[in-house]
Amino acid sequence: MSTTTDPQGGTFRLSMLLNDSRYRSLTLQAIAAIVLALAIFQLYSNLAENLRIAGLNISYAFLGTPAGYDLNQTLIDYNSQSSNLRAAMVGILNTLLVAVLGCITATIFGVIAGVLRLSNNWLVSKLMAFYVEIFRNIPVLIWIIIIFTIMTAVMPGPKLYLGAEPERELLAGLFAFTNRGIYVPAPFFTSGFGGEEGSGLNWLLVIGVLVASFFATRFVTANANAKQAETGVRPNTLYTNIAIWIVPVAVLLFILGLSWDMPDPLANRFNLRGGLQIGAPLIALWFALSIYTGAFIAENVRAGIQAVSKGQTEAASALGLRPGRTMSLVVLPQALRVIIPPLISQYLNITKNSSLAIVVGYADITATLGGITLNQTGRAIECVLLLMAFYLIISLLISTGMNVYNNAMKLKER
Question: I need a labelling partner for 360 at 20 to 30 A (CA). Which of 94, 140, 366, 397 fits?
Fold first, then answer.
């Protein structure tokens, strides 16, 4: 049967779905979608049938029942009588906390190590190469265990800080470093929403003001760039941007009544009270993920820098720029188009590797929903499905956000 590829028209025949280049790709995608849908339906049917035979059913009612267990790290109010859903939310927030802290710290470690690996100083270059090779070739689980063991074995117990005449004073009267974690002053609000107990709404207001300050400084900088392009003279925006960042937040904190809860060595005979305790499991997990992933980021940074033509550095030097300014103003901005794509994968690895938190007893989502809740309720399928959905959503959000940033930084073609 003959086919037509004339874009101007002609008689449509079913054979054109495969033989005509205008329809072939759509046909193949439709076939793939149908096959995938049938496979998912078959798997679901098998699951439903096996559950029916075993006398089980898919139900998420267990999320509303009391959890019945305590957690050592919480960012929101929680006790053993809270629901399993509340426990899962605590785990989600703890996972996000480690992911955000890990991504920030790993980026700092990676950028510093990647730049110093290209240093002309032989000793500095070799030390950074040693860091990269050692940390990236040993599994992150081993580093988590090592750091946690060092913290619990080397750091002193809280009892050294207790009493009217303690063996060890609080550092600067504010900080205590123990084998249970680090105790630091905790901010709270004496007025505003929630009174002295504070409220999440207060912190949302602070975050909202910071976000507004960010966009305000972007607007001021954009206006300065436009005036520079038009007149050749750039207005001074440094003090304006500093004021935009500091003044609104300072005023808001004054209105809300920001105060500090200090660690108190006299309040208890067994442990310090007051302040904020950053637990040893959180520190071990955070630091291990940071130094491990930072080694991989360092290689990404080094590759990005080496991808920039040496002529760029030579031109900057000819203009009188110092090496540090050349790196920050000329080389790194151009290297970002090479650094960012693999950096996305490293951020995803940090988020997913945080599931190793259960090894040191950190209450992340895997430990709460995928561990204790699963074992107590017996709802393995439901818990695993929720875990999969959480990690999938978080990974897609990180990937989407970083891809948007990558598109903004890549070279624009004419």
Answer: 397
